[in-house]
Amino acid sequence: MIDIFNTSIELGLLYAPAVLGVFLTFRILNFPDLTVDGSFVSGAAASAIAIRYGIPGIPALGIGFIAGLLGGCLTAFLHTRLKIGKILSGILSVSMLYTINLRLMRGPNVSLLNEGGIIGFFSAPMNHLLVIIFLLLIVILTKLFIDWFLQTEFGLFLRATGDNESTAKSFSINTNVTKFIAISLSNGLVGLSGALIAQFQGFADINMGVGSVVLILAALMLGETIIYNNKVSTTTLTIIVGSILYQLIINIALRLGLGGSDLKFITAVIVITALVMGNNKKKISFYGKKIFNN
Amino acid sequence: MEKKYLTIKNLTKIYNPDTPDEIVALDDITFSVSEGEFVTIVGSNAAGKSTLFGLITGSLLPTAGEVILDNKSICYLPEHKKAKIISCVRQNPDTSIIGSMTIAENLAMVKLKNKRVSLRKGVKSEWKQVFATMLKPLNLGLEKRLDEKMNNLSGGQKQTVALLMATLTQPKLLLLDEHTASLDPKVSRSMLKITDKIVHQNKVTTLMITHNIRHAIEYGSRLILFNHGKIGFEVSGMAKKSLKTHELEAYFKSAYDV
Q: Which helix (H) or strand (E) holds A211?
């Protein structure tokens, strides 16, 4: 049982930066960004390749972040400059990133066995406590960054853009710029998660991003059902917990005998449940007001 | 001759040109407004009033003609740049404020309008004091609710804050598009009093669209009546003051009961 908790906390924290990133686009910017499936792999691939070239683990995480960020730039460019719709921009980006990622890895996967990376710090037998503390550090820093970012001048403009774009324009906000930066940053965080997972699993694979949008959304929505609060800092905290909770549910489901192939269905069911519950909550005032997607 | 601040020159807007659905919304309109003038605009539906505002704010592009503000042609400036010099308050307060953000955050964004955006704290603590002293004279108790979401305010309160926000940055031009239409008569009256006060205090050039003929006569120094995309009637100064509601109504009747 203990190892279920350890694995869930670890995986939850590994995915947490991505969940925080998706929170920026889906919730703050009100932009359903599907790029995630591609930028997640870009982050993993870039960081794996960096390690292959002898770059140490932590700088390689930064490279993963930048790779994800560039993936986000692609979507943002398609949407803000070429005026392609929100969903379609993401889908087109994922398609293009698939090719780019394959080129980057020069094949469908890159193995990192015996190549070091972050996992090298915690060499076998793996010290779970140390791993969790390390991941917690990254995740808390990311959370604090987002809390701070959304309170800055630029953060105000970003939130205004997400709430009501035409009013934001009347505040002389260049909504193309706010969208561009938010989408890039969000995918950078997704890339960071990809890089973390590649280094912990010891490989990057072209298919590791498939369905990650749904997985991350499930974690985000689970987190939001814990507490409804007006404060951004509370929400960012609860979605980290949501990310862990999601992994816990999945790991328990696996333990109960469900196969790995059943998980995508379960994940989608979690998202659907959260969506339906969210719809009902608007009618039931007991839970208080929900601010982000009213 | 007095310097003309805002000049509308041969402005024409045709929707769906060269099709059977062609509609001439504005037909070769020319007029100018002096600095600090408060002009009320009346006219029935489809007279071209809102099209005129759309062309000035930049949400629409003209078919012909131009809009000159402070010696610069502004028709083709992008909307977010125009927003720096032109403020607009519309009928629905939700189009001028961000509901999910607090009063202080909304006011702060307006204060940031003409500055380069940075990553400094959005709502500076010293600003809150400034916002509170601005809100206090409105007697709505909003100075104590700076950290509350705009969505918690009533329609009238939202609209008052919207008006305050519109004039906070000293715009070159203030556009009021039926901004009291969705409020009840009492709130609507006090809203107009506040409007008049703010407009005079800031000496801001203002165009106000209204459907209320009495308000159009009572407020502002000049009245323009739009009729089928043309200026049907114009009156200012003493003549406007002595204008009677029924005279204007009679004009409306003669224009539309053809």
A: none
Look at B98 and A167 and tell me if their CB atoms are within 8 Å.
yes
Task: Confirm whether B93 is domain-assigned.
Answer: yes
Domain span at B224: 4-97+171-256
Residues 6 or more apart in contact with residue A179 via CB below 8 angstroms: A29, A31, A76, A79, A80, A161
Q: Is the dihedral of CA B103, B105, B107, B110 positive or negative?
A: negative
Query: Which residue in B96, B105, B114 is closest to A156 by CB distance?
Result: B105
Query: Token pair 């759309």 is at which residue?
Result: B54
Shortest alpha-carbon distance between residue B82 and chain A (Å): 7
Look at B188 and A102; give whichever has higher pLDDT.
A102
Better-scored residue on pLDDT, B97 or A293: B97
Q: Report ipTM for this prediction.
A: 0.82
pLDDT tens digits along A121-133: 665 556 778 888 9
The residue segments making up the domain with residue A99 are 2-209
Helix axis angle, A36-52 to A212-226, nearest 10°: 110
Torsion, CA A111, CA A116, CA A119, CA A123, rounded to 10: 120
